[in-house]
Amino acid sequence: MFTERAGLIVWVSDLKPARNLERYGTVYYMSKKLHYVVMYVHKEQLEDTMRNIQRLPYVKKVERSYRSEIKTEYDRNVPDKTRFYTY
Fold it and tell me: Is 63 helix (H, G, I), strand (E, B) or coil?
């Protein structure tokens, strides 16, 4: 039903031609100040897409986002100490 996606951070030298990155995936955010683009691509085509984006003349560097691999469910192993500090 849903396709697996992977995030990419693309550092660019100019944002005007960076609008063409929509051909490779979904552009989520473009930073005008720091000149980077956050985009999502299909996970199966990640390596080919990274290689094709890196060849573009206005692209400085392409990084993979590891946000989907970070653990977001936390266990509470530490006991609650707030009851010791109340009067």
Answer: strand
pTM of the model: 0.76
One pLDDT digit (tens) per residue for the chain, 87 residues: 678 899 999 999 999 999 999 999 999 999 999 999 999 999 999 999 999 999 999 999 999 988 877 777 777 777 677 777 666
**Domains in the chain with CATH codes:** 5-69 (3.30.70.80)
Beta bridge partners of 26: 40
- Determine the Cα–Cα distance for residues 19 and 17; give it in Å rounded to an integer: 5
The torsion angles phi and psi of 41, rounded to 5 degrees, stand at -130, 165
